[in-house]
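Section 4.2 – Deliverable D4.2 (structural model, holo form)

The reporting period included a commitment to supply a predicted holo structure for the target in complex with phosphoric acid mono(formamide)ester. Inputs used:
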Amino acid sequence: MSKLSQKHLLGIKYITKEDINLIFETATHFKEVLSRPIKKVPTLRDITIANLFFENSTRTRLSFELAEKRLSADVINFSASSSSLKKGETLIDTVNNILAMKVDMVVMRHASPGAPVFLSKHIDANIINAGDGTHEHPTQALLDGFSIYNVKGQLKGLRVAIIGDIMHSRVALSNIFCLKKMGAEVMVCGPSTLIPNHIESLGIKVEYNLRKALEWCDVANILRIQLERQDIQYFPSLREYAQVYGVNRKILDSIKKEIVIMHPGPINRGVEITSDVADSKQSIILEQVENGVAVRMAVLYLLAGRMEVASQ
Ligand code: CP
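Output (structure tokens):
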């Protein structure tokens, strides 16, 4: 069986189209395993994984933990709020103390862009980036791409619009890298203050008009306004943002085709998306969450470098 080209998953930027295809192929197998009455396989029985979350998470943390347990790994969980970081311990000291407990893989979320890359230069364990500041969130992009692939059959040639707070979103950057590598056309849409200068240099389109973006795309991935990362005011009010960039039933009904609606969560209902859109048949938001477990099982399995997927 083929292996990933990298020892770590630090970002989609560092992996190849072949890696992504291999992850999708392996995730398809694990998706089938997860539909069985007995969902657990012994694949990572001798592997110990530490989930180090220095920043809040619901979906990613639970999804990784479930993926690890479905693969029979031993799991330890660390959360910054209840740790000795509060007593002044450095990141390297914290991680080295955890690794002294014979940990093989580290899943890490951190508020600082580049924290997983920094860590990879100091420790031997495989590292998976579970989101580093405004930089990358590779497993989110992989589960988003896998979810589109499951609905549409392929990514090549598809038009995907990423709508919202592009500036502060690690999901946007990882999605752009993933979708471009897989041959999709990508557009970003949002207020000009929330779109980074020169983002076109990544080979994508920029649109400031929501209706035009929705008319152009086959799939709309709608992102949350990341107020916690905004130190200045980028738009007048959330109410005005919802009026101009909120995806609602009325605007979708006025588009001549049915587009697939995605959102990585957490959702701010009534701001970037209304409930009647988020909960509609067009939305694959909960499929994204479901696929996240299979995709993370695939990443863990492939990074562990095992030769065969257990079949029981
Ligand atoms: N999509 C995502 O990363 O959600 P969490 O912040 O809850 O992990």
